[in-house]
Amino acid sequence: MEPAGCVDLTGTVSSVHLLKINGYHFTATMTQAEYIKALWDFDGHAWEVRCYPQHPDSAGFSWVALKLILLGEAQAHPPRKVRATLSCRLVDPTGKIGASEEKSKTSAFSRPQDCSSPILLVRRDDTKLSAYLNNDSVTIQCTITMFKELDVVIPAPVKEQEGPLPIVPPSDLHQHLGELFLSQNGADVTFVVGGESFPAHKSILAARSPIFEVVFFGSIKEGNSWRVEDMEADVFRAVLRFIYTDDVPAAELDESSMAEHLLAAADRYGLDRLKVICERKLYAGINVDTVAATLALAKQHDCSVLKARCVEFIVGSAERFGAVMATEGYKHLAARYPLVLVELVKAAARGRKN
């Protein structure tokens, strides 16, 4: 047989952990150099995430800051350079509020003890921080994404006399999990939403959502019955179906306001793929009547691409700007975000300069 070929590709792998700081008010006594650390073995690399509760900035304010340190790589002589991104955001283990804006830093690591620059997550005096305090504990969702070279072996062509290779069938895992969702066999938790009950499986929910992971397997450890407030039963049913099948039927997204409600729920439970699916649906449906409400939703749930598209649409022409300002949706937007008019005027001015 002819020898196989080899080509270098760049791949990415990610891992998510939750860093919980108990007794947060005691961190006020820590010095600038003191930190809380978490060790993290991931894809053959050993990492350390350090949280500095009293990290100063150039203006003298104290921040909750995080750094990523490479401790070592298994079986690498000499060690290979690896690029990694640390992304962090505050989460509410109870699921009552959505996650905070995500912040990240990408660094190159060549040897053990290489360290990233700090991520300034939130100022200690920021009022938003208090919303994420639960029994004097703060939970930070940390994601490490590694960019590395992969050695991919390309097999030599198979000669006819060796016979055809068997065809690998497409994955049907989502179908099996969808059947489990419908059958409810082995369910060990029940959600009550709008008077309806939804049996589910803790392990599946925790594997898909960092919020459910904390709720069911963290220190909180909720019981087997959980009441969900501020959400309609149809929306929660769609969220559960997505968790099991990784899909949302297009017809379901076409229903009135479903995309808006699902986006809010996805942000609430840390379902990033579902959030992007809903963003794309709302992006395609922007018009004079919907853009103000969509912009408010994008601002509330940190959807930067959707927000930029809404602003671009509104300031595209003076006539359209005036038409949007005459809608009820714009009145609600201006009442909730009073500075939105200033942002739009600045965007319009930049557009005229360009």
What does this 3D model show about the protein?
- Pfam families: BACK_BPM_SPOP, BTB, MATH_2.
- Pathway: Protein modification; protein ubiquitination.
- Belongs to the Tdpoz family.
- With 354 residues, this protein is an alpha+beta fold.
- It has 3 domains: 5-151, Apoptosis, Tumor Necrosis Factor Receptor Associated Protein 2, Chain A (Sandwich); 173-284, Potassium Channel Kv1.1, Chain A (2-Layer Sandwich), CATH 3.30.710; 286-354, Alpha Horseshoe (Serine Threonine Protein Phosphatase 5, Tetratricopeptide repeat).
- Helix content is 35%, strand content 29%.
- It has 13 helices and 11 strands.
- The strands form 3 sheets. A 4-stranded antiparallel β-sheet has the order 1-8-5-6, covered by helices on one side. Strands 2-3-4-7 form a 4-stranded antiparallel β-sheet, with no helix packed on it. A 3-stranded mixed β-sheet has the order 10-9-11.
- Helix 2 packs antiparallel against helix 5, helix 5 packs across helix 7 and helix 8 runs parallel beside helix 10.
- The protein is globular and about 60 Å long.
- The N and C termini lie far apart (61 Å).
- Residues 1-9 have low confidence and may be disordered.
Which structural traits does this protein have?
354 residues; alpha+beta; Apoptosis, Tumor Necrosis Factor Receptor Associated Protein 2, Chain A; Potassium Channel Kv1.1, Chain A; Serine Threonine Protein Phosphatase 5, Tetratricopeptide repeat; 4-stranded antiparallel sheet; 13 helices; globular
